[in-house]
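lol ok so funny story. i was supposed to be doing the assay writeup but got distracted and ended up predicting the structure for this chain instead. priorities right. anyway since i did it might as well share w the group, maybe its usefull for someone
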Amino acid sequence: MNKRERISDFVRSLKAASAEASPQNYYAAFFQLWNAQQYYEAHDVLEQLWLVEANAELARFYQALIQAAGAFVHLQKNFQQPSHPKHGRRLRPATRLFALALRNLEDLPDEYHALDLPVLRELLVRYRDAIIAVDFKNNPWSPENAPKLNLL
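and the output, tada:
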């Protein structure tokens, strides 16, 4: 079974009532996984839509969400193992992904695919700036304060 088939099966398992792994189910699964702090899996699920999206604006939006999830993967791994040789250095890459996500969200309407983009932008800026303000020495993320993303 290849990666795409595994992810399709996973998406179907998240929505037991759904018989098909449709784009809407992948999109909804992204938020379900994000809110469960499964950022890597959220990234993987949405990547399946991004890789085949023909609409450039929508592809850019998906890419921004993937980059945001990737940034939180870095923060989560750093939180879990701050003294690990690799995970201890994940704050700078996280801020770069936050910046890329913010760039990809530019010029999109405030409400896009049922997501409140000003709220998302503020979240990304807040985490990025909190890391930079302490010269990459402290991670603002923890499981207790992990951000949630909800569709409108």
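Helices lie at 3-14, 23-35, 39-50, 56-80, 91-105, 117-133. Strands lie at 111-112, 115-116.
back to the writeup now i swear
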